[in-house]
UniProtKB/TrEMBL annotation:
Source organism: Hallella mizrahii
Protein name as it appears in the record: Uncharacterized protein
Compositionally biased tracts (Basic and acidic residues): 20-30
Region: Disordered, residue numbers: 1-30
Domain of life: Bacteria
Length: 131
């Protein structure tokens, strides 16, 4: 995460003021232990990654129809670290891969919620028939 933030500073460091603004945003993100991913993931009303003091990464995302707040699995965290640390990817490539990772998590949650809703309706219909 720190490596990505440093690269962001270098990329936007064309003027002293913008470099200072970047440093301020990076410092704030590190203090809050949060990164706003909304600009990287198109179509998300809200998307942020929070790193807890215990080292757990929690994704909070809202695409308008599904809200997700959950800890990233070890595999997801490893994939995120691999994406951010990949020197062979451009910033745009990293954004695309991060968006894919986040969208996959949100879609998975949406499918799970849909399945639970269908199961619940089926149980309600079954109970209604028994009456």
């Amino acid at each position: 995460m720190k490596t990505y933030l440093r690269k962001e500073t270098r990329r936007h460091g064309s003027s002293l003021q913008s470099e200072e603004e970047q440093k301020s945003r990076i410092s704030e993100a590190m203090d809050k232990r949060q990164i706003d991913l909304s600009t990287m993931v198109k179509g998300m009303k809200e998307c942020r990654l929070t790193i807890g003091h215990d080292g757990r990464a929690t994704l909070s995302a809202d695409n308008g129809s599904t809200k997700v707040t959950r800890d990233l699995s070890n595999a997801e965290m490893s994939r995120l670290q691999t994406i951010l640390g990949a020197d062979n990817l451009t910033d745009e490539g990293k954004k695309i891969r991060i968006a894919g990772l986040v969208n996959g998590i949100v879609i998975s949650q949406q499918v799970s919620q849909n399945y639970e809703n269908i199961e619940q309706r089926g149980q309600q219909q079954e109970q209604s028939v028994k009456r």
